[in-house]
Amino acid sequence: MDGDNPICSMSASNVRSSTIRDFLNDANLPGMISLAGGLPNRELFDVSGIKTACNTVLHRHPEAALQYGATEGQASLRRELVSLMAHRGIDTTADTIVVTTGSQQAIDLVARALLNPGDIVALERPSYLAAIQAFTLAGAKFWTMPSDADGVLTDRLPNFRTGDRRPKLAYLVTNFSNPSGTTLPLARRKALLAWAVENKVFILEDDPYGELRFRGHRIPALITLAAEIPGAERWCGYASSLSKIVAPGLRVGWLVLPNKLSDTVVRVKQALDLHTSSFVQEIAAEYLASSALSDRINLARERYRQHSDALVDALDNHLHAELTWNTPEGGMFVWATFKHNGDTSTLLPIARKEGVVFVPGIAFDPMTESRNSMRLSFATAGPAQLTEGICRLARAISEWRMQT
Ligand SMILES: Cc1ncc(COP(=O)(O)O)c(C=O)c1O
Q1: 211: closest CA among 124, 299, 141, 113?
Q2: Nearest to 178 by CA among 148, 209, 202, 147
């Protein structure tokens, strides 16, 4: 014990550092091709559209933008989010939406509102790293749900008996998951809801990527499907964000939850930050009210489709003997796994020397497994760079095989 320094809480000390944030520095090294960061492509930011929205807000209603606001969020933004959700087939009203500071805060709020230290959270394997961090901070223990290339294997979920220790919360990214790129099929979504009702497990569906579908057809969200399954509406909530479709710097996300949980979340948020920036919320509302968003989303879909195709073609051409991977229908990620054993965290330093970085699978696994996998992001690098990045990765793998 270091008596001269304050002692951090156990839950704070247990939070693993974000390997991805560490890699963001590597990504900026001259000549480095980064397949590591999960940042949206900055060329997709609608700078002039946001500038116009910002000027309009300051011109037309500065008092709403510059004053303290309601913890639930600005009325203008909540109304716009209702329309955005309607496009996703989700039927809500403004008073059921809680605006959050990014969907990261949405996850944190649900964790704080629901979990006692030692409560179990069910996760996909692999799972979004910063959600693992938020649940760890709440003192959670983890249970991984059996999963395959389409996400959770719902027919393998156990039915808990009275008195069994069971998860209190299950967290899933249903569309183009980070990191695995998988999308949960319709039948599994319904089965998951039925399981949640039967076993009294609250499901938080996190959907920051759903709009970025560049192939196939939209699958209804869990909260849409919940209307068909008796009791399910009380056992699921929905989180989303403007980060991947407008800009992450806005830090605008939102939650739709059953009433009682929503009230608790609002009280918790009050204690955390009073409310998400009213200025930014008004800008976001103004931007959503303009017709700019749907064009931007179409642009993003087309761009990410080209990037995804370039990455998958390069994997086909250079690494089919070594790796298996999913071909994503949207989003920003490909999850690649060695056919034969191999720890991708030992490959990384060699890849870095070759001028390419990725995130080793171990970073996304609460049980620190998934060692033989890696997350490859196709959002930031262009098609030519992605192809070159995979050539470098192939060279690094040859060198690494010779050493191991
Ligand atoms: C699955 C998932 N959820 C939540 C977030 C947090 O996003 P934000 O807080 O910017 O909305 C991210 C960011 O990468 C993500 O991938």
Answers
A1: 299
A2: 209
Which backbone phi and psi does 134 adopt, to 5 degrees? -65, -40
Would you tell me how many other CB atoms lie within 10 Å of the CB of residue 222? 26
Q: pLDDT, tens digit, for every residue of 36-68? A: 988 999 999 999 999 999 999 999 989 999 999
> What's the pTM value of the predicted model, to 2 decimals?
0.94
Neighbour order of strands in the sheet with 120-123: 97-101, 252-256, 236-241, 202-206, 169-173, 120-123, 141-144
Dist. CA 81 → ligand 1 center (Å): 17
What is the number of the ligand 1 atom nearest to the C-alpha of 107? 4
216 alpha carbon – ligand 1 mean position (Å):
23
Helix/strand/coil for 202: strand
Structure tokens at 299: 């642009």
154: three-class secondary structure by DSSP:
helix
Pocket lined around ligand 1, Cβ cut-off 6 Å: 38, 102-104, 128, 173, 178, 206, 208, 241, 243, 248, 253
Q: Are 103 and 241 in contact (CB under 8 A)?
A: yes
